[in-house]
Write a structure and sequence with these properties.
Elements: E1 3-5, H1 15-19, E2 30-32, H2 40-47, H3 51-60, H4 68-78, H5 81-84, E3 92-94, E4 100-104, H6 114-132, E5 136-141, H7 145-154, E6 160-167, H8 173-180, E7 187-192, H9 196-208, H10 210-215, E8 218-219, H11 226-243, E9 251-256, H12 261-271, E10 276-283, H13 288-295, E11 297-299, H14 322-329, H15 334-348, E12 350-352, H16 355-360, E13 366-370, H17 373-387, H18 393-405, E14 412-416, H19 424-431, E15 452-454, H20 458-468
Helix pairs in contact: 3-4, 3-11, 4-6, 6-7, 6-11, 11-12, 17-18, 17-19
The structure holds pyridoxal-5'-phosphate.
EC number: 4.2.3.1
Modified residues (N6-(pyridoxal phosphate)lysine): 114
Organism: Ideonella alba
Length: 471
């Protein structure tokens, strides 16, 4: 499989060529030149496979520059019950007679769905860097889930170091403990005295210094990485097989969304021929995406308009993966995609698709809805009371919106993107008790912490990277 940019550059690249890259050189995102489609016989065969085997089959369709035996081994060591807690890896459970099902994607090491992709990325990076004899210094900013997932995926990996910036004192005690208790020599936590945007600005500054970036081999693991998106396609298939008995049945998915990475993987699965009726995008108060699917206008928000909510991993001002869907929506017209994202967004911070484009959205199965703090609390409480099922705040946004879109005879699968233990404060507010923690995580707040506090100063962060590059 070859990959091209969404903004018109037709240069074709292989999977491993784009694996360690961020944006394409023209500023677009990478997508396969065409989605491979899956016929009925293949779908029937896949139904019986274990998760790692299924992952291998799907990844093989997109990766032709890693020998099959190596890819199989990488996938097999990634998706194990030891790492993800169950034989099924992504077990699906029913919420009573509501017509809703929950697919658990958050039983990995950091209790959020980002582990599903990041754990594979860690193994792919180590493999590819080893093959090239290269090193990579991953630089990122996090307010929680992404940073911890990246660190747990990259800890102890050869050829990779992680420099993760976070706003000092602003993550939850649990999230800090998760990240700062890592003692691996290749993991560096930098607590910036400022807010998330200060940390993010430093990462941008460093990345814009091309000479520094090249000399110190700076890379990222953000959600636009194609390999992350690809890894997520697998659990749409796995969820479908668990929720149905035969491949002539259709299901819908509701996806708690921020950067549109998770639900974009659902779009890819549907384009491959998985029988998905609707892909329901659930947002919180940061409703950039809900607004688009209702009106056809995509308007990015400024930081003053970006709300801090109780489902914080969905607090985004723009949806960085959204361009991939729009590229398909406009008939894979790179010039049109560039006019929308490169020009209109840069000029006005917004665009509106044409009436014809807007009416084409339905053909891709997309629907949307939004949820607020009050909805979240009510949904967590009601799901706990009615079904004895305690869900996290992001999943609650999904369940709230899913209930508004469920249709008779069509199983509605809500993706569980985090465990309630990660967001204890809101859970207490909703149900008046403490969420349980998976075994082994009790008392992690008391573990010794390893982190460096710094002023929000790009030069200081660069000096820190230089000093630790030889470790
Ligand atoms: C990252 C995250 C999301 C949003 O996923 P996107 O791929 O950005 O849409 C939702 N819930 C949780 C818990 C997350 O960590």
């Amino acid at each position: 499989m070859r990959y091209i940019s969404t903004r018109g550059d037709q240069t074709e690249r292989s999977f491993c060529e784009i694996l360690l890259e961020g944006l394409a050189p023209d500023g677009g995102l990478y997508l396969p030149v065409a989605y491979p489609t899956v016929d009925a016989a293949t779908l029937a065969r896949w139904r019986g496979l274990a998760y790692a085997e299924l992952a291998f089959e799907i990844l093989s369709l997109y990766i032709d520059d890693i020998p099959a035996a190596d890819l199989k081994a990488l996938v097999a060591k990634t998706y194990t019950p030891a790492v993800f807690g169950t034989e099924a890896i992504v077990p699906v459970r029913r919420l009573g007679d509501s017509g809703l099902l929950i697919e658990a994607l958050s039983n990995g090491p950091t209790l959020a769905f980002k582990d599903m992709a990041m754990q594979l990325l860690g193994n792919l990076f180590e493999y590819e860097l080893g093959r090239r004899g290269e090193q990579l210094n991953i630089l990122g900013a996090t307010s929680g889930d992404t940073g911890s997932a990246a660190e747990y995926a990259m800890r102890g990996k050869h050829g990779v170091r992680v420099f993760m910036l976070s706003p000092h004192g602003r993550m939850s005690a649990f999230q800090q403990a998760q990240m700062f208790s890592l003692q691996d020599a290749n993991i560096h936590n930098i607590a910036v005295e400022g807010v998330f945007d200060d940390a993010q600005d430093i990462v941008k500054d460093v990345s814009n210094d091309l000479a520094f970036k090249r000399q110190y081999k700076i890379g990222t693991v953000n959600s636009i990485n194609w390999a992350r998106l690809l890894a997520q396609v697998v659990y749409y298939f796995a969820g479908y097989f668990q929720a149905t008995k035969h491949n002539d049945e259709v299901v819908s998915f509701t996806v708690p969304s921020g950067n549109f990475g998770n639900v974009c993987a659902g779009h890819v699965a549907r384009m491959m021929g998985l029988p998905i009726k609707h892909l329901v995008v659930a947002t919180n108060e940061n409703d950039v995406l809900d607004e688009f699917f209702r009106t056809g206008t995509y308007r990015v928000r400024g930081s003053a308009e970006t709300h801090e909510t109780s489902s914080p991993s969905m607090d985004i001002s723009k949806a960085s993966n959204f361009e991939r869907f729009v590229f398909d929506l406009v008939g894979r017209d790179g010039a049109r995609t560039k006019a929308l994202f490169g020009d209109a967004i840069a000029r006005e911070g917004a665009f509106t698709v044409s009436p014809a484009e807007f009416s084409a959205i339905a053909g891709y199965g997309f629907q949307s809805g939004k949820s607020t703090h009050a909805d979240r609390l009510a949904t967590i409480r009601r799901t706990d009371e009615r079904f004895g099922d305690l869900i996290d705040t992001h999943t609650a946004d999904g369940v709230k919106v899913a209930a508004e879109h469920v249709e008779p005879g069509v199983p509605m699968i809500v993706l569980e993107t985090a465990l309630p233990a990660k967001f204890a404060e809101t859970i207490r507010e909703a149900v008046g008790r403490e969420p349980g923690r998976p075994a082994g995580l009790d008392g992690i707040e008391a573990l010794p912490k390893r982190f460096t506090v710094m002023k929000p100063d790009t030069a200081a962060v660069k000096a820190f990277i230089q000093a630790h590059c030889a470790d």
